[in-house]
């Protein structure tokens, strides 16, 4: 019997493997989108091609652009370096590992959900829904999107280790859970939610752990404090967040919770990026559907209330930190958060099937949804195929988005369509994206050979962010065009000191000194 069960488990894992690769293999042939991936992989190509730079990964912000930064995510950069060392530096290599990370997070999710003793069929189907959901296309198709699957891997693994600790009371399992929490924090800032979620999980579901919940919380808090110390040391130039600003930012974005629920439940807004989304009747309907498990558990006593509430608590608390710094609607944020909704709905479906004897109907319902999601995912993945496709989709979906306008202006400038580039820049709200706006404007001026205007723009940027890499590079090129080569050399000296891993700056400095490098136009090095 035991062998038979092991064969069944192996068959389930094999089914996941076949289904996911059948759906996601196309991503291996995708190119870069030039949305962050060009910064991580092209600008830092030399840096992430040598294992000797691994210590430096933990000493720099993720964008490694010199100026102030709010992101310390060394695990992401380390994963890119690992890609290069194993399969080489190519889009195919990075996309292949993205698929593997998504696959691993799906496997771990299935293992974790089975520990709740939900119905096995429903557990498989909900995990399948997670694996093919169009909301998570970025995990496989957008190379920087692996940050969310990596976060899910460490998050779920931490809960599995904590579960083992609560069952066996072996301190090694607790230390493993805390170590995985630390890795999750080094992956993405929203992992701070685990400081609360881990002890709450132990307290709610293990009576023998209620007295030790404080110990778990203390360990998680100390882990977070160590992470915070390291992060603050690396991001010394980052502007601190005040308590009022954090509260206002989170409170003002509460409405976006409803948009995220709509994205998961109804799929009416499968956008790549947007500055904001409207609250529509579909938003209200999807939110009402989402909260059915809570109402059913309270009013009709369908399902264990603490499991359902824990699931919703997971969803809310995992999303809350994402509203502190950036306010744009970015759907990839719900990857790890959605696990909470899965927990709540699995408990509801399991209890409903027992109470109403409608398991076969619910199974059919979930299977149909999985099929629908798979077809929708095939089209969603295509949006990430290459830079031109990506930008055209972003602009088409979010015509009023500041990100979309800037990306389109950058695209036009790169193709020499300078009038169109200026037209898009004129529509940008400069107060929201000042640095990006000025850098693209400076590049357009340089391409128009308006070097004095370009110089003034870049000098203005550097008064605000003295170590901003793209502006230092572009201003050096402008000085070179204006014949002020000594000043250009000084800027390259600064760039070499800030980014010794980037050989190109030493090469360009030498070209200026040798007085052989005279070119028309500037160089916009943001992407």
Sheet with the most strands, sense and barrel status = none
- How do the SSEs run, as a string of H and E? HHHHHHHHHHHHHHHHHHHHHHHHHH
What's the pLDDT, averaged over the residues? Answer: 84
* First-residue to last-residue Cα separation: 57 Å
Please give the number of β-strands.
0
Helix-strand category: mainly alpha
Distinct helical segment count: 26
- Poorly predicted runs are 241-250, 516-527
Proportion of residues in extended strands: under 5%
Helix content: 55-70%
Count of distinct structural domains: 2
User: What is the rounded Rg?
Assistant: 25 Å
Global shape: globular
Structure commentary:
By secondary structure, the chain is mainly α. The chain has two domains: 381 residues, no CATH class; 115 residues, Serine Threonine Protein Phosphatase 5, Tetratricopeptide repeat (Alpha Horseshoe), CATH 1.25.40. Helix content is 69%, strand content 0%. The protein is built from 26 helices and no strands. The longest helix is centred in the first third of the chain and has 24 residues. The N and C termini lie far apart (57 Å).
